[in-house]
Every structure is written in structure tokens, then in C-alpha cells.
Amino acid sequence: MKTVPTPDISSEPRAIDTSRRSFLQRAGQLALAGGALPLAIDLAVLGEAAAADASDYKALVCVFLGGGNDYANTVVTYDDASYAKYFAIRNAGGIALSKASLAATLLNPKTPLPDGRQYALNPAMTGLANLFNSGQAAVQLNVGPLVVPLTRVQYNSQAYALPPKLMSHNDQASVWQSLGAEGTTSGWGGRIGDLVLSSNGNATFTCISAAGNLVFVSGKKAVQYQVGTSGAIAIAAVKKPLYGSAAVQAALGTLIQQPRTHLMEDVYTRVTARAIASETVVTAAIGTTSAVQTVFPSGNTLADQLKIVARLIAGRAGLGPARRQVFMVSLGGFDTHDNFNAQHPDLLTKVSAAMTAFYNATVELGVASQVTAFTASDFGRTLATNGNGSDHGWGSHHFIVGGAVKGQAFYGTAPPVSIGNTSAPEDQWHIGQGRLLPSTSVDQYAATLARWFGVAEADLNGVLPNLKNFGTAAGRPDYPSDMGFMNAT
């Protein structure tokens, strides 16, 4: 085999320096007086951008499945030949789904897959199956972190660059969100946000997390604004009388916002004032949009997060206005080493019901073609069973949902169903036990979304540092830099 030089990966995202200036930029993100300050207060965006580069509205919504979702029981191989192999492998641990149970969620693509391959969704995912079959959802097959395209032989040679610390939860969650190992301080959603700050009348509301502090929506200028499922996170001490005294409340409010002569104290008070003002703006913006009629399922934390995202989108005119936004939501529990049969279907029920309700809300709001939701996860899992579940893997299948999606279609390459360790062709697309070797990189997946969002070609490599190693320009047309699942507008 011809040796290919390891590509330059020096442009990989690096941690922001810990200089005094950088420290000051982040200092105001600390908690105060019993209420958390939303992480929206980067000093670089204290001066608002008045210009609007975009006159329309678009939003990206990352739905992160924390813990590593099991691909094989989510998008389930269905054609007779492939299903027989799947059943033989998974039934050994009692986690194979019956073919009869999959009939109602069979996916019917406009263009059939090669070699007669077919897939169905888990029986718990009727909502997403219906969205796929009606053209509002697509499936990206076997996507995961890659630095360069790889075959199994190349992976085993250890002569090619690999994502850091494969199969580690923290690192691979970070790689999916930021394209860098744990500790990386900007995500590709946040770096997209950096490019569109001037499109929004209030830059604070460009990147929003409803799932806590997650790197995906942190940029180098755009810092994530965190919300709760009921709305803005308030500083409790200035929202109601302290010790029964409105005077004490007013005094504290003045104290924590007034200018200071000490540089660091002054930064903190300015950030606090900004947080208080932002909470007021968000509360006013969504206060008039509580009449969103779409019913979101109860007892579903992912649905709760997506509902507040829908309310923020409905209230975007009051947020500056906002014309380009990146959102983050998340559901945990996917680390299914055991108790698989009880745990996994319940999780997928929540994902399908929440994403379906969210799509319906975008239809209600008239923005279905302007909002795209997509899934991501730490990694896929083994096709082989450990006896009561599945173990950490690499590549996985993911969903893209929205009116601008070229739906009712599969993208990428359907992997063979195999767990062997031989030189046979079917064993070249996993690295053992059915851990999929990705045939599409996160960079390719993300670039397809970023282009639709409006990111210019010249800016893509700054957002996605490994993209330069894929596509025609890199001599790899078999790994296109655009997977094709989004319409142009």
C-alpha cells in the first residue's frame, strides 16, 4: 500500500489562551446571589451589531444524544439478507428487534438503496418514520469523527491521523461538538455563530443552549446564552424582595451593576447588568408567544427543551431581531451497556416524539423551511452484544429534519452487517465487533448544514478544520464536502 503523508492538522481548534484579556472576557460567567448568569456575556459582543447581513431567518438546532446512541437498533437493517445477519448477531444477547415489529416504521426512500438494502426505524420512532416517508426527514448513514478518509487497513496501520481518544465519552462528545478533544473551548456551532453576529440586532441571542453549558454553541466571539425550559435564567436576588424588603432588593440590584474602579470588578458588574437586561428581553420576547398551539409530549425533557426553542424562534423579532440562530438541546442516558431492552426504546420514544412535535411547531410558526434540526451523539455502539446491551463504538446513523431537507432519502454509504475480523469486503467498514468505521466525517456532515445556513466557502475551513482533507479539492471525490441532504435555500 502506498504511504500517504499524515495531513497537517495544525488548524485544529485550540483552547483559548489564558491571558488576562481572555480571562476577563470569561470572568462574568460566574454564579451570583443564588442564580446562574447565562453564558452570554463575552466582552467581544458587548457592543451590539446594528447591521443585518441577512434579511431572512434561519436556525440550526443540534439535538445531542448523550452517552453514545446504539445505531443498529435505531436505524435497523430490514432487507432479508441483511436482517438475517443482524438477527444472528444481536439475538445472541437478546437485543434483536423482530422483523414483524419493524413493518410499521419501514422507511421508503424515493430512490432505493443499492443492492436491495432497506432500513426501518425502531418501532418506538413512528413520528420520525412518518416525517421521513413524507419527505421532511433524511438519514445520514455511518457518520462520525475523521481527520482523513480511512479504510480498516489504514486504521490498523497506525500511520494515519485519528480523532483523539476514540471511544472516550468526554472526548468524543467534544470532538462531535467542537472537532477537538475535551478542553476545546469553541464548537463548530459557535464558530458558525461568530460569522453571523452582525446579522442579529442583539448578538447575545445568536447561540443559545437549553441544555446547560455545552461547547457546541460556544464561539470565539459568540458565547452561548443559556436558557431554562421555562425561559430566561434570572438572577434570583434582584427578582423579588430580599428578607421581605424591597429596599434591600433595590440596593443589591444597584450594588451588583454599578461601575467600579477596579478593572475586574467593573467587568463583573457590567456582565451582571448585561445578564439582567438580557433576561428582561427574553422574558418580554417569549411572553407573547406562549400561545404556540403545538402539543409537546409531557414527561419528556428533550421535548421541554425543544418547546422553549420553538418559543424563542416565535419571539425572534423581540430578540434584536434575530435572523441567524444556533441552538443546542440534549437528552442523556444512551450509554446502554446493560438494561438495553428497557432503556433504549424509551429514549428513542422521547427523541422521536420531541423532534416530531418541534417540526410541527415550525410548521405552525411558518418557518419549517427555515429551521433545521439534526442529531449528534458521542459515538455509535458495537453491533455485537455484550449480553445485555452494546459497548462503545465509532460511526453511527443520524437524522436531519426540516422543510429545507431533501427528505425521504438516505445519504452516505450503507455499511455491511458484520462483526468479523477478516479480510473479507464486509469486514472493511468496521474496526471490530461491528464498531463502524465512518464513511462520512462530521466535517462533511457539518459543512452541508453550514452551507445551507449561509456560511461562505471561504469560511468553511475556519469552522471545520478537517474539511480540507475531504472532497474534490483534496483529491477525494468519494468523500464529498457536501453530502447533498439540504436544499440550496
Automatic annotation (TrEMBL):
<protein>
    <submittedName>
        <fullName>DUF1501 domain-containing protein</fullName>
    </submittedName>
</protein>
<dbReference type="InterPro" id="IPR010869">
    <property type="entry name" value="DUF1501"/>
</dbReference>
<dbReference type="InterPro" id="IPR006311">
    <property type="entry name" value="TAT_signal"/>
</dbReference>
<dbReference type="Pfam" id="PF07394">
    <property type="entry name" value="DUF1501"/>
</dbReference>
